[in-house]
Amino acid sequence: MATSGMVVSLVAAPASAAVPSHHESRIALLDTARLTSAARAVIESGPVVATPAEATWTFDNPVATAVTPPPAPEPEPEPQPEQAPAATRSTARDETPAPSPGIGAPAPASANGSAIVEAASSLVGVPYVWGGTTPSGFDCSGFTSYVYAQVGVTLPRTSAQQRYAGVEVPRDQAQPGDLIWSPGHISIYAGGNLQVDAPVPGKAVQIREIWQTSPVFIRVG
Prior knowledge:
This protein is of the alpha+beta class. The protein is 21% helix and 15% strand. It is built from six helices and ten strands. Strands 5-10-6-7-8-9 form a six-stranded antiparallel β-sheet. A hairpin with a 2-residue loop joins strand 3 and strand 4. The longest helix has 10 residues. The protein is rod-shaped and about 150 Å long. The protein starts with 5 loop residues before the first strand and ends with a strand.
């Protein structure tokens, strides 16, 4: 650390030199030509400060020290996420989710398809009766419920409920014994382009061609 200083010395005149009078020193130092008498009187009446000849004035220059702060620490690197090991071929195959049931998914085999068609065909000629659920008379959903019951399968009572009693399958994958649903009506698929149903009042259970425009085929497991 460096230290510097500056010394200023004022050396007074020797004691033997003539000291001017109080009035003369004031007049010599100041231009009083333009002062008023009152200002002149103030100057002349002020005290005179005399400096001894041996007086020395010393001024210390303060020392400034620059302090450099330490550098900020560098941030620690963020931890890298661990990478999971690559799945093997067998693992990837095992984790592949099975397709959900619906159109396009492999449909289960029809439950007792031939037995259902046989039971339905044996009831041909039974008259249509609204709300009927027995061989004395059937409506459309009463007929399908009764036929499926013959092979041990319980269906909901109405056609709207039977619409969701199984899995919808594409028409080209339909099997005999599947249900055929259309708004307000339900029947049993007999294969080819045929169905067995209890049609409308005044008619009887019959085997006829599929007449519905966009029928929905339902596989009940």
